């Protein structure tokens, strides 16, 4: 695969990390800012916490996938 294959893996890992950052940012900042305007009927703090945990887990999963891609696995 050589240098070209290594560069493609690096670019793919960078793209996955960028997506992971976006998922975490949108999930955490968006949820917390929306909740800071006041709770809406039917939306609880537990639901916001669930969104935060899920987006952090999704971001961590994408980051681990990118690391595995860089390691050639």
UniProtKB/TrEMBL annotation:
Which protein are we looking at? Amino acid transporter
Organism for this UniProt entry: Methylobacterium persicinum
What keywords sit in the KW lines? Membrane, Transmembrane, Transmembrane helix
Membrane-spanning intervals of the chain: 12-37, 49-70
